[in-house]
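Run log // design_07
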């Protein structure tokens, strides 16, 4: 499933839930849909912007990352699909991330979110203009949350450390 996950029926179902939920909450489509689940799954996986999602577990596990997300977070798909989504943020950023996810859970979505995230190798970046939305399955049951963004800035760790020390 790693190279072309859109061929997998479960991946297609997850993609459909992501796209349908985005349309429901935001009133517009995330991508131009083809009407074919496999093709829509391919289009979203190959989209030039980041999309990732997690399930409904107590400590939610990532269950969707498109190619742009895998590249940005420096992950391979099999490892990513076993990772708690909180691990995309540093420990000091996780409380702020949890507040934003709770706000999305209550409102259905949050748009224009920004926050600091980290890659699997520890590189830090600030995301901008992210949209986070609740995902429901075909029966309308909660099926996690998803996020998309196309704007981020790599952070220079030395500059960030200086800024943190000067504000302390």
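design_07 sequence
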């Amino acid at each position: 499933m790693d190279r072309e996950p859109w061929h997998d029926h479960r991946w297609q179902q997850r993609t459909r839930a992501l796209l349908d939920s985005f349309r429901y909450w935001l009133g517009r489509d995330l991508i131009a849909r083809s009407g074919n689940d496999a093709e829509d799954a391919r289009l979203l996986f190959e989209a030039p912007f980041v999309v990732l999602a997690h399930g409904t577990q107590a400590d939610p596990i990532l269950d969707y990352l498109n190619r742009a997300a895998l590249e940005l977070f420096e992950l391979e798909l099999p490892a990513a699909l076993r990772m708690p989504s909180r691990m995309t943020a540093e420990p000091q950023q996780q409380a702020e991330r949890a507040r934003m996810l709770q706000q999305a859970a209550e409102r259905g979505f949050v748009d224009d979110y920004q926050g600091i995230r980290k890659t699997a190798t520890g590189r830090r970046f600030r995301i901008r203009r992210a949209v986070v939305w609740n995902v429901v399955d075909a029966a309308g049951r909660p099926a996690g949350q998803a996020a998309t963004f196309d704007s981020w800035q790599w952070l220079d760790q030395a500059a960030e450390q200086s800024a943190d020390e000067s504000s302390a």
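The radius of gyration is 16 Å.
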